[in-house]
Amino acid sequence: MDKKLKVGVIGTGFIGPIHIENARRSFKADVIALVEKDMETAREKAAKYDIPLVYDDYRDLLKNPDIDVVHICSPNSMHYAMARDTLLAGKHCLCEKPLTLTRTEADDLLAIAREKKLVNAVHFNVRYYPLIRHAREMIHRDDVGRIYALTGSYLQDWLFKDTDYSWRLESKISGPTRAIGDIGSHWLDLIEYVTGQEINEVMADFETFHKTRKKPLKPVETWSGKLLTNEDYQEVPIDTEDYATVMLRFKNGTKGVFTVNQMAAGHKNRVYFEINGSKCSLIWNSETPNELTVGHRDRGNEVIMRDPSLMYPEAREIAAYPGGHNEGFADASKHLFREVYDYILAGDMTAKPRFPTFEAGFREVVLCDAIVKSAKTGQWVKVL
Fold it and tell me: Domain count of the chain?
């Protein structure tokens, strides 16, 4: 039997259990340890997820010589220090986005990863829906033609009410941008990945609809949907955006625009794009991820189903089931983790990774910085 990697997970809020589940589903790794803010919580989560080792300080986990890979699933402000310490401890690192809150921090992590020759990855899981890779291959093979324009959105409604609250609303923890940094970063990474084109300039407009929110006096997990009474909260000002629309100029002259909104009633978690080319259009929606619409001018539109027999070979590699057996959100993370683990197990650190590395994380920090600057100045800003 091939060697299985030993994984430690830092943080078990909303995204941590998704990492735990899909690390196991990859069949390439065993999750042997987790870190939480205190031992009581750590033991409770370890019992729930059947994990043998628990820590309340991530640095203690890093001292464990058995752990090969560390998944960082903590709040944003902790990513840089944890990723840096993970690499310096000689562990491979898979980090949630955003990689860091500043360009300087991201640059530092890139330098350390290169020096240490360790595997580094960012959890841009939306890339790993099979039809996303098929769409990328269609563009690469010139099935779509010259790309004229791009439109899209990432819409959620989990912050619709002023009683909805999360640490993601606090800029000291989540960073200077929320809707763009939290979900816009996924859309930006996705569209550059699918098209193979780089964004050159941005023009952004931000809005915060709830200027104040009701902050719980005790912890509430993201996406928990727990209701509060008047005695459970305090009014706090909000300094991050609920909504943003960004116009895009790409290096090759392509134009684009996208919207992110975390107060869009009726949309739970919808990533959407439309790519208009000289031969056809491509349309994809993450809430129906097993369908890719191909739009035509002179004949009926097509719907390509997520069926390995209908997709290019590059997409078949991340299609685990036959046509009609749907794959979704969790499977995307499983495929990403499997590619990361396969790369580690192969042992050739000179090979070009197919998964999103810290370079992709750095790219999103740079893009978000430019978008925030544009929102503040009301001007087009170059992505440098």
Answer: 2
